[in-house]
């Protein structure tokens, strides 16, 4: 097992430098071109997330912006926010938190572009709409082969590898809470999660979004309240904590071996695993929304990056750093649990185990939907979808008995490959997102609710919906 862990780690250490160049380079380019869209349009983000769903041509209500946000949040807000942040700090030191923040701000611009593109190139299906990078690769770039590669990679990454990470983290948290050891109890946890997963994923996207929009906000808010209480109890230590984060981020004060490089690399990896900006995952959820303009969902998904990293991940970091953690280990959920217990008492160990269970479970079903959308891209066969669902359930169980370092190492590797394919596609397609952004902005300046029809920008080829007669996108549009 150690040989496999070391081999995966060596590949990641080399490969991820290339991924980071793509992530940072494209994120900065979009940020500068758009005039910091991810900061300037924050009010529009808050407005867009509360809009009601448009009515579909068959008279039914489509997936609302908030429901689509909930699917993506269900995947984003999970073990990466608690377990991943703990690993980042223990391996990279406090400075890893700074680089998580930096990548969230830069990545929000990339998230805006990829989700805007997912909206404009979405297609109709039985539940409303579906789409994502595979679809904008086929219809926008006219390179189906590239879409097929991406669809296979995201299906493997989210359906199998990332879902194994979620169950592995549930077991880690449960073992700290209950105190069990050995494969027997871990396997039992795996069976329970697998059965619950099967009950939900065989119900379709509406059941997935319905579960996510209830569970994620309740659990996340409860966790945030506890985190803010920890900060309030340690208010005098907060300035020193921020000083330590900044100093360690630039290698001024070395906390763990590797200094700046360890902080930078761990912060980037764990930040991307958590907020998924640029990976091409959230666009699959963004495409399901029935909205009047593609840019609206781009803005909503940018907000999702902030919610995930600047709020939930930060709270985890504050809980850990205000509790004098041990560095240089691969501790995950247990690090956060022990830190919270030191501040608020032993009962929080059990609370956090429950919170991790719910957050990880909603991540599992959110991850599953990303795979489903791409299975349908690869083949319309219901049989293939049923096989995929069965394999997801198997991988959910397998993650419960897997090795923590190996599972997270494989997650890093698959995540890097997926992000690379998506970012390469975004480079030539970013011009489409920019044109839509200008179209949206002109209408906002005129004081009207932005609406898009594909005839408004005839230069954008490959658009499958957004017709003038489409009742889901009716209303005035900007011809200028």
Structure description:
The protein is mostly helical and 480 residues long. It has one domain (2-473): Amino acid/polyamine transporter I. 74% of the residues lie in helices and 1% in strands. It is built from 18 helices and two strands. The protein has helices spanning 2-33, 37-40, 42-49, 65-76, 79-92, 95-120, 133-139, 144-178, 183-201, 205-233, 238-249, 259-275, 282-286, 294-321, 333-344, 347-378, 382-400, 404-445; strands at residues 123-125, 128-130. Strands 1-2 form a two-stranded antiparallel ribbon. A hairpin with a 2-residue loop joins strand 1 and strand 2. Helix 8 (144-178) packs across helix 18 (404-445). The longest helix has 42 residues, at 404-445. It is globular.
List the helices and strands and how they pair.
Elements lengths: L1 H32 L3 H4 L1 H8 L15 H12 L2 H14 L2 H26 L2 E3 L2 E3 L2 H7 L4 H35 L4 H19 L3 H29 L4 H12 L9 H17 L6 H5 L7 H28 L11 H12 L2 H32 L3 H19 L3 H42 L35
Antiparallel strand pairs: 1-2
Helix pairs in contact: 1-6, 1-18, 3-14, 4-10, 4-14, 4-16, 5-12, 5-14, 5-15, 6-11, 6-12, 6-14, 6-18, 7-8, 8-9, 8-16, 8-17, 8-18, 9-16, 9-17, 10-14, 10-16, 14-15, 15-16, 16-17
